[in-house]
Amino acid sequence: MKLLVMKSFKMLCLLLLAKPVLSQPIDTTLQQLVEKACMKSYDEQIYKQKTEEIRLDRRNAKSTFLPKVSGSMAYMRLNDDLRLSADLENLLLGSEKLLIKEHLGIPFNVSLPANVPVKPIDPIQQKNLFTISGNAEWVLFSGGKVHYALQALDHKQKVIEYLSEQQRTKIAMETTELYDKQALLIASERALKTTADYLAEQKRFVLGAISNGLATPLERQKIELAEQRLETRKLEVSNNKELVMEKLHQLTGIDIAILRECIPQLTIMVNDVSGTNYKRSEIKMLDEAIAASDKKYKMEMTDYIPKVAAMGHYEFRKKDITMPTAVPTWLVGVGLQWNIFDGFVARNNAKKAHAEKTEYELRKAETEELIALANKKATLEFATAMQKIKMMQQQVTLSEKNLELGNKQFRNGLTNITEYLNSVNDLEKSNLDLQNTFYEQRRAAFALLEAKGLIVSYFKLQSAD
After folding, report:
1. Which parts of the chain have pLDDT scores under 50?
2. DSSP notation for 287-329
């Protein structure tokens, strides 16, 4: 009991002399558990993939200004050759015959001899057509669409980072809770062992008294019943320890055998963050979402700004193209596209982006109110937890004195075994309640850090990138 009092006194000294939590050394075991849990988190891995997706979207947006080169190859078969009209062909044949007559010196009003060949008129386009061509397009001005798209992606990337920060905060809180539960259960085992030592000592006294005719077997049976109840509580604590270790194993991926070697202790945490004013990740995420929606609105409105692009075309194979001037070998030019009326599509998309921005602004206002309430609640609960520790330390001291007095009275026959066992139970309950107040104080301290948005900086957790 003296040892327990000394420990309580040391904890009280820590309570009065501890430095602000942000300058306190972090439990290295807890630090490693939190880091392992963050590394194993599937949500964190998903955020990493989302970051990669945004990086690729950014590259695609930038590639808008890179030249696009494509090639095409086509084969077509018409049902028949394309020819000139019969009158035009007859006119061309007549002109050809006049030229031949002039060349041979035959008068124009004399028929051309039958043995003089006349070249037939070729079709405009043969039925079989096979071409190979290349095309190039180069966007010179997108109307600002790419510029705003890149800015929107930058803000979207920040949103993912702050979502990841929220997730890491959640993981850290879950890990610390399991770690503190493990420490509470270990402390409970120690308290139960102290109770077992009292019962064992008193049992030896009762057995000696029975052998001397100074006590009845009923008193021994009462102690044995108390021992059975104590064993039941020990089993419950042991089972809870196994369950907590299994949860820690699933959360961190660390082998249970290694987790069993960890023996955490419930030490008081003193937070001095009343003057800090950190912006929580929820607010920073909503700020980025608002900015992203604003850029999206501007991006949609650029659909009404003219776009400029250079273009080129080259025919690599024109063998089957018989039309003399149908397709040039190459061409280059600059095009202007101006979307004058698109059925209000761009306008509606812009209005949708503006509505999203308004929604995020409303969520931000609500979140700020909830955070302010959470800060107040965490501050009050932390102060209450600190006061409970002082109260429970006094309660333990009083229970120790009552047990010491009850032990003397029982040995001197001034009280019965039931009253003595009640004193033992009171001390056991006081010790367990004290450990539970240490646990509650640590939970309140971490809750205050969470309310202030300091969990990630406290554990120095890296982002999903």
Report:
1. 1-23, 325
2. HHHHHHHHHHHHHHHGGGS-EEEEEEEEEEE-TT---TTSS-S
